[in-house]
Amino acid sequence: MSTTINKHARFDTRLPIEVKELFEKAAHLGGFRSLTDFVISTVQEKAREIVKEQEQIIASEKDAEVFFEAIVNPKKVSENLKNALRDYDDFMLKLKDDRAAQ
To answer: Residues 25-40: pLDDT tens digits?
Structure first.
């Protein structure tokens, strides 16, 4: 038999009564079982949004670094790439000739 152990942490905060009342109203109107459920759900959603946004920014910055590195220090063109370009040019020329013949 396997047992699952759930570890929990506590989060306490002090806030103005007006803010708590606003949160309670929003929790009730939003159909949440409790203020705690509302706060956890809302904060968790916002936290995921912030983390995702920051990860996209970091990825974009990394992409930019890779791109600019390739521009500044391009690698030598391989024979395979040269052959692919030659094949493409031949194909396009044949396609153009076929269209002109029609």
So the answer is: 999 999 999 999 999 9
Contact status, residue 42 vs residue 30, Cβ threshold 8 Å: no
Token couple for 85: 């370009």
Residues 47-68 pLDDT 10s: 999 999 999 999 899 898 988 8
pTM for this model (two decimals): 0.56
HEC-encoded secondary structure of 31-67: CCCCHHHHHHHHHHHHHHHHHHHHHHHHHHHHHHHHH
C-alpha–C-alpha distance, residues 40 and 13, integer Å? 13
What would the two tokens of residue 47 be? 């936290």
How far apart, in whole angstroms, are the C-alpha atoms of residue 54 and residue 47? 11
Distance CA 52, CA 40 (A): 18
